């Protein structure tokens, strides 16, 4: 199957699966304890710009969304459609 | 910076009362098989809750100065923390959810962790309308259907175990 390029690090290997594969994946995940799901689900890789400041705050969500669109690379996928 | 760990989630869980896991991190707690970079908490906006949150974050190892602590207590709509043991987004007014209390009423408890209902997670992603959300939504919606189906089956089993006659009576 050919899939479209994905945005962001969060869009992972699952893009390569078809919707028909999803229930089996959900079944497999349901059999894993929560601790194990944590270990494999939460990952960390460097995200340019986003990871370059230790603290950011925004008065409104709109300000945050706008900041993402103005400052983050498009390929991270934070821009609105 | 390391990834979010179960024991850290436990520290947050045990520290203060009024927050919900939201976003993909919330879905993962519900059983969604995927990966994410950060934890997202939907926090009730109140000074008391904010103070509890700040204390908990400092205990876990977030390096918050006086001004940052005060802003969190005051309840900005969005605070992004990358100054601790893992990346954490504090969301006080997520897109697509009217009030914290509404989401709190619909919450799901997973091993003591309060998590937004899948409908709220989906609603917030739909309202945010980002490219990364558009990609993950079809699979997330499929998970919602799976999760609801399993939940109904478990509830049916629980009724059957607690009162085997109840099922028979329903079928008549």
Number of discrete helical segments of chain A: 3
What fraction, in percent, of the residue positions of chain A are helical? Answer: 25-40%
Q: What order do the helices and strands of chain B follow? A: HEHEHHEEHEEHHH
What characterizes the major β-sheet of chain B?
4 strands, mixed
Low-confidence stretches of chain A: 1-14
Structural commentary:
The complex is a heterodimer of chains A (81) and B (172). Chain A is mainly alpha-helical. Helices cover 36% and strands 5% of the residues of chain A. Chain A is built from three helices and one strand. By secondary structure, chain B is of the alpha+beta class. In chain B, the strands form two sheets. In chain B, strands 1-2-4-3 form a four-stranded mixed β-sheet. A two-stranded antiparallel ribbon of chain B has the order 5-6. Residues 166-172 of chain B have low confidence and may be disordered. The chains are: A mainly alpha (81), B alpha+beta (172). Chains A and B meet through helix 1, helix 2, strand 1 and helix 3 of A and helix 2, strand 3 and helix 7 of B. Strand 1 (55-58) of chain A pairs antiparallel with strand 3 of chain B, so a sheet runs across the interface.
Layout of secondary structure:
The complex is a heterodimer of chains A (81) and B (172).
Chain A: H1 22-31, H2 34-41, E1 55-58, H3 61-71
Chain B: H1 6-13, E1 19-21, H2 23-30, E2 39-43, H3 47-60, H4 66-74, E3 78-81, E4 88-91, H5 100-105, E5 108-110, E6 113-115, H6 118-128, H7 131-162, H8 164-171
């Amino acid at each position: 199957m050919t899939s479209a390029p994905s945005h962001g690090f969060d869009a992972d290997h699952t893009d390569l699966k078809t919707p028909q594969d999803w229930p089996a994946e959900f079944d497999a995940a349901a059999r894993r304890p929560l601790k194990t799901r944590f270990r494999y689900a939460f990952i960390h890789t460097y995200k340019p710009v986003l990871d370059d400041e230790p603290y950011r705050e925004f008065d409104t969500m709109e300000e945050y969304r706008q900041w993402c669109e103005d400052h983050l690379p498009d390929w991270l996928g934070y821009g609105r459609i | 910076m390391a990834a979010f760990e179960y024991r850290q989630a436990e520290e947050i869980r045990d520290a203060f009362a009024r927050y919900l896991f939201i976003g993909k991190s919330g879905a993962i707690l519900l059983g969604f098989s995927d990966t994410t970079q950060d934890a997202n908490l939907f926090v009730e906006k109140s000074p008391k809750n904010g103070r509890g949150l700040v204390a908990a974050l400092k205990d876990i190892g977030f390096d918050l100065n006086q001004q940052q602590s005060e802003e969190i207590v005051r309840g900005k709509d969005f605070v992004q923390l990358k100054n601790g043991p893992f990346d954490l987004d504090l969301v006080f007014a997520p897109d697509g959810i009217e009030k914290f209390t509404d989401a709190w009423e619909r919450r799901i408890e997973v091993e003591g962790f309060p998590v937004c209902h899948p409908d709220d997670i989906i609603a917030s992603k739909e309202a945010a309308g980002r490219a990364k959300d558009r990609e993950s939504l079809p699979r997330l919606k499929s998970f919602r259907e799976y999760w609801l189906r399993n939940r109904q089956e478990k509830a049916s089993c629980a009724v059957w175990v607690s009162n085997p006659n109840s099922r028979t009576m329903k079928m008549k």
